[in-house]
Amino acid sequence: MKKKLQILNKKPVKYSLIVIGLLLLALISNLYLQWCQNELSLDLVFKFAFSWHTEKFILGSLVLLIFLLFLCSLAGSLLLGSALYAITIGILGFADYQKMFYRTEPIYPDDLKMITEFGLLREMIGTIPFIIILLIAVIGLFFFARAIYKSRLLSKKIQIIRISGLMITMALLVYVSDFNNPNNLLRKAYNETALWIPYSQKMNYYNTGFMGGFLYNLKVDAMDKPENYSQKTIEGITSKYTKTAQETKSSLEEQPNIIFVMSESFSNPQHLTGVTANKDPLKAYYDIAKTTYSGQMLSQNYGGGTANIEFEALTSFSMELFNPQLTTPYTMLIPKMKEIPSIVSLLNQQDYRTTAIHPYNTSMYKRKDVYQTMGFNQFISEETMNYTETLENNPYISDESAYKEVLDLLKEEQNPQFVHLVTMQTHMPYSDKYKTSDYSSQSLGNKKAIDSYMQDVAYSSEALKQFTRELKELKRRTLVVFWGDHLPSIYSDEIKVDNDEVNMHQTEFLMYDNQGKLSEKNTNDAVTSPFYFAPSLFEQSGMEMTGFYQLLSELEKQVPAFEKSFYYKDKKWSKTLALNKEQEELYEDYRLIQYDIVSGERYSLKNDFFK
């Protein structure tokens, strides 16, 4: 009897220790995530958790505790569930720190879909760290799977507790995933003290904590429904711009080839204050640019966001109009759609042969599925390219090889071609690609990477120049839109401080005509956004405009470039968009059409607005 009482007395102590241990693990893991988010500053972490934003820290810890209990219930083991939880949070925090370091942008829930992109992850964090993380993850998953298998031997009483815990935590996690529902109780609890900053995810995570920012970026509608959205409103818009477009017929005798070239991280480093070089690495590029329509393109991101720039260029829809939580349309929006109007679908209707070329694997950003939805006739990747040469130690297929692939397609004279090329030569990392560099920079930090990057863009410029020379030999008129998607993430904090945000988001672009007939070929200082590329090219080359392109063409004349918190109007940059009545009408018409396609009833597809 005495022994039984001793055992009974020990059980409450044991259970109390377990509860305290789980609570501590959730709190410590939240502190760790916050530490990674705040650039490893313990001072900021403790101020956030215990002084500035304690309520939000506790709410985030509660969500982590639910996830921890879910893993423990699934494994049927507190020890192994906690171990896998620690590994998961450890990797998540490290990934967030890396992304903040390279792109000054936090990890989003949608980024977790990239976890199988082993090649890219290895290149981003280095081979040794990647192998270590992979080994830890594999070992953790092995023991976790083993625990699940052995859990069938647990007693009936423990199994009942385990299954109950699993069902409850699963239900809670599903409820948490609906965070952006205004009636969600967790969201309401956050709203009591949270100051959401939609236009800056970095500040959003800073103000609401890693967990608050992460939850804020869970699933959400692409766009909120405008108050005046209706079939009648859309029909009025489509009729107005289609009528204007039909007043100007195509002046072309033959359909031209059209080439889009999105050049990875292509930009002019000497545009930045604090970066100079012994000679211009973009000399070959400017030999072309100064003779044609060219200038600066506003990129949505610094150091990344390639797929979003590509989305804008192909669809002519703007990321600025989306809800801020929709961070990557290629993975969050297009997979849910059967079709999406784009320059690809438009040219398919005009008997073009449409081809996408990406000298990398097909799974990156779900490009294989996205290109299929857009209607490309074929997708050529590194596995199917005929030309795969690289430059010295550069691991990526060279731009010269990629252009050879394009030229082979253009030799087909029967049908006009639309080719969309996404290059890889100038992708990070930038050190150790080349044995020597012809370029020596003077910069505040990271000189080795900047010198290597200059050599990279110099090779890219020379390849582009050679490509345009060879295009002149073609009989068919050929139009090229070339642009850099974003700046590379190689610049030091000192350089970033010396340059305003606009400078860190501008890259080079040009439009080239192998017959030199573009209507604005003497404009070399244009400022634009990528969603204007297609309508601008159509208008300048004399191609027949669609109603949608007519709308964009008129909007571009009023507001030449814009992204969230970057607006260019009247040759001035501002943080907010101040519009007059005419400009407001154009902007609102554009917003309504984009909503109609991505979240609405798609009325505009039924009356040939995109044809």
TrEMBL record:
GO terms for cellular component = plasma membrane
Give a Pfam family name: Sulfatase
Q: What is its main location?
A: membrane
Q: Where are the transmembrane segments?
A: 57-76, 83-104, 124-148, 160-177
Membrane found in the keyword field: yes
All copies of the Sulfatase N-terminal domain together span 256-542
- Matching InterPro entries, A to Z? Alkaline_phosphatase_core_sf, OpgB/LTA_synthase_biosynth, Sulfatase_N
Is Membrane found in the keyword set? yes
Where does the signal sequence lie? Answer: none
Protein topology in the membrane: Multi-pass membrane protein
Q: Where in the cell is it found?
A: Cell membrane
- Pathway terms, separated by semicolons: Cell wall biogenesis; lipoteichoic acid biosynthesis
- Tell me the superkingdom of the source: Bacteria
* Keyword line: Cell membrane, Membrane, Transmembrane, Transmembrane helix
Q: What is this protein called?
A: Sulfatase N-terminal domain-containing protein
Say which species the protein is native to: Candidatus Enterococcus palustris
